[in-house]
């Protein structure tokens, strides 16, 4: 199942009905359903895409700043740049799950807008620092405040849609990070002409201007981002009732409305969460490797700073097309596994080409970057959506999505430390490790695929029916015998 039904969706349907506050709509009206989904799409996806776009641009624009003089001005040497990259991931990984707990306590609009403003201020700070220690401090704050964006946005998106409606929306949301890579290069190219304005180098203006935009959007987001479905102001009372009813029907009996000891034990022992997280870690390494180092790789291929910035744009445009194509087919065929391994295979081809770059022409090396980024973004959002498809129950999905995004970012930690300046322009360690991480993703996606097929067959044979006799039979989540996993 691919949506995180909020506590209120699952538990308040009965309350609203008995109080007469919201009558659930039980009839299926295709025209009304289509209109409802369109309204949800227009109200939900644009603001979340916008803040994710800004978050990804603000965490990766350091790659563009690097080739515009940042390392020289801050007297960065040796592994200083790598350290500035990986410190971001320390608070980012630690605070993912706590953030998703907080967002359930307060409104999504208040929480997401607040952390957007705070990380925007941190980004501005990166443009004002005078040494490497100051940059590291700002990167730590950036990781702390950005930690809640992806799990919070995924949680909110998945609250509004049924299981096989989510992948397309999630991938559209995820395309914000791809477009950020393209736009960041274009913006860095334009800002490059501001060198000396106000006494600041051009790399400082990258952080200052992009941070200011983030702060402004963060303030606006308080009134732009919708809250939980049953309080959504953009819907009529009838539409809210219809939305709540269709989400509850999609959950069926596989609910987890209470976070007691038994529920926590079920969550902690679920192998799917760990397998899905490791698969995500493998593919996420690829995404950060591209964002952090592609400008430098192009620069070291012989392209000047401005040329390198511009040549990143078509790479991300192609990746956007591949990402949305895979998402559309994944939802239409109600299948995930094939699209993950195809994307991994495409990216793997690119890494192999770059490992052999001494014997291939410049054009082929540039084409390899298209394969790496495009293949990676084919797989990455599908891996995210797939884990959401194989866990059920509001509490379980909330923890699973935050755990996957949080600990999956170990992949970003890895990518920050394997592209070594002393190995430029061949980056043998970076490409080799990234190739290995592609294999990790493929292996664990395969484990998940055959694991859920095996479990579905056991349930078809009635081998899990004994769970209905347990004291927590009404709070089993996806352990409920009626639940079937997506493949």
UniProtKB/TrEMBL annotation:
GO-annotated molecular function: transmembrane transporter activity
Basic and acidic residues bias spans: 7-21
Domain Major facilitator superfamily (MFS) profile, chain residue ranges per copy: 44-457
One Pfam match: MFS_1
Its membrane topology: Multi-pass membrane protein
Alphabetical UniProt keywords: Membrane, Transmembrane, Transmembrane helix, Transport
InterPro entries assigned to the protein according to its UniProt record, in alphabetical order: MFS, MFS_dom, MFS_trans_sf
Transmembrane intervals: 83-103, 110-129, 141-160, 172-191, 203-225, 271-293, 313-330, 337-360, 366-387, 399-419, 431-452
Subcellular location: Membrane
Top-rank taxon, per record: Eukaryota
GO CC annotations, alphabetized: membrane
Location of the region described as Disordered in the Swiss-Prot/TrEMBL record: 1-21, 463-487
Classification via SUPFAM superfamilies: MFS general substrate transporter
Protein name as it appears in the record: Major facilitator superfamily (MFS) profile domain-containing protein
Source species: Thyridium curvatum
């Amino acid at each position: 199942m691919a949506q995180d039904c909020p506590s209120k969706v699952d538990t308040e349907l009965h309350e609203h009905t008995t109080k007469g506050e919201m009558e659930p709509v039980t009839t299926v009206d295709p025209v009304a359903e289509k209109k409802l989904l369109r309204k949800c799409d227009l109200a939900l996806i644009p603001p979340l895409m916008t803040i994710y776009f800004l978050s990804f641009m603000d965490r990766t624009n350091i790659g563009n700043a690097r080739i515009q003089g940042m390392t020289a001005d801050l007297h960065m040497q040796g592994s200083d740049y790598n350290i500035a990259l990986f410190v971001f991931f320390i608070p980012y990984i630690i605070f993912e799950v706590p953030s998703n707990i907080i967002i359930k306590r307060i409104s999504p609009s208040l929480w997401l807008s607040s952390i957007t403003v705070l990380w925007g201020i941190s980004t501005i700070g990166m443009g004002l620092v005078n040494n490497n220690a100051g940059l590291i401090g700002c990167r730590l704050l950036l990781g702390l405040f950005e930690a809640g964006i992806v799990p919070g946005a995924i949680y909110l998106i998945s609250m509004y849609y049924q299981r096989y409606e989510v992948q397309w929306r999630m991938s559209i949301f995820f395309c914000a990070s791809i477009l950020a890579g393209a736009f960041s290069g274009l913006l860095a190219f334009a800002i490059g002409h501001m060198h000396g304005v106000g006494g600041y180098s051009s790399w400082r203006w990258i952080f200052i201007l992009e941070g200011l935009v983030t702060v402004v959007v963060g303030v606006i987001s308080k009134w732009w981002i919708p809250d939980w479905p049953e309080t959504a102001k953009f819907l009529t009372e009838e539409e809210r009732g219809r939305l709540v009813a269709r989400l509850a029907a999609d959950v069926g009996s596989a609910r987890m409305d209470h976070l007691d000891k038994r529920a926590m034990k079920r969550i902690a022992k679920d192998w799917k969460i760990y397998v899905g997280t490791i698969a995500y870690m493998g593919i996420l390494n690829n995404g950060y490797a591209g964002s952090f180092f592609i400008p430098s790789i192009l620069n070291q291929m012989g392209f000047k700073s401005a040329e390198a910035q511009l040549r990143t744009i078509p790479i991300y445009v192609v990746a956007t097309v591949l990402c949305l194509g895979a998402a559309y087919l994944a939802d239409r065929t109600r299948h995930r596994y094939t699209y993950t391994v195809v994307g991994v295979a495409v990216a793997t081809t690119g890494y192999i080409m770059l490992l052999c770059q001494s014997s291939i022409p410049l054009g082929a090396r540039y084409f390899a970057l298209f394969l790496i980024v495009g293949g990676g973004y084919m797989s990455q959002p599908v891996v995210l959506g797939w884990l959401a498809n194989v866990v059920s129950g509001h509490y379980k999905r909330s923890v699973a999505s935050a755990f996957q995004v949080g600990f999956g970012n170990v992949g970003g930690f890895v990518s920050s430390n394997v592209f070594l300046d002393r190995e430029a322009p061949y980056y043998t360690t970076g490409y080799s490790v990234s190739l290995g991480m592609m294999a990790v993703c493929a292996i664990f996606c395969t484990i998940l695929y055959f694991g859920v097929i095996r479990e579905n067959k056991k349930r078809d044979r009635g081998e899990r029916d004994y769970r209905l006799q347990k004291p927590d039979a009404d709070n089993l989540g996806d352990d409920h015998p009626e639940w079937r996993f997506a493949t």
